[in-house]
Amino acid sequence: MSDARVKKLLEDLRALDASRYALVLAVRDKVLGLDPSVTEEVKYGGLLFSANKAFCGVFAYTKHVSLEFGDGAALPDPHGVLEGDGKLRRHIKLVALEDLQTRHVPDYLKLAYQHATRA
Fold first, then answer.
1. Of 28, 102, 32, which is closest to residue 59 (Cα–Cα)?
2. Handedness of CA 47, 18, 35, 93 (dihedral sign)
3. At residue 103, what are phi and psi to the nearest 5 degrees?
4. N or C terminus: fewer CB in 10 A for the chain?
């Protein structure tokens, strides 16, 4: 863990709900695995990930985990899974570990990372 606040957030989530904890950890591992330069911090009640600029966040809610893309409206949506219709933000709702594959999470993480690190 790069930060005591991250560790505390994850410990609190584990105590509340083991399945959401496992889902957040799985998403977190995929995000941090994109590149060694990816950083994380606790912000807005979840984990915010950056590379040059913030590109996604993971937030645990009562019945799901949300993978949020701050500039998601600028991302292509080849699998039609991005939700939201605001000017900028898009998200993917996750309820089970299988959703990481069925909702193509690695693909969208790569797209968001590439978008954030473009020169």
1. 28
2. negative
3. -100, 10
4. C
- pLDDT tens string 27-78: 999 999 999 999 999 999 999 999 989 999 999 999 999 999 999 999 999 9
CA separation for the pair 95, 45 (Å, rounded): 18
C-alpha 4/C-alpha 51 separation (Å) is: 20
Query: What pTM was estimated for this model as a whole?
Result: 0.93
Neighbours of 35 (CB within 10 A): 10
Alpha-carbon separation of residue 27 from 48, 58, 67 (angstroms): 12, 8, 8
Rounded CA gap, 41 and 62, in Å?
21
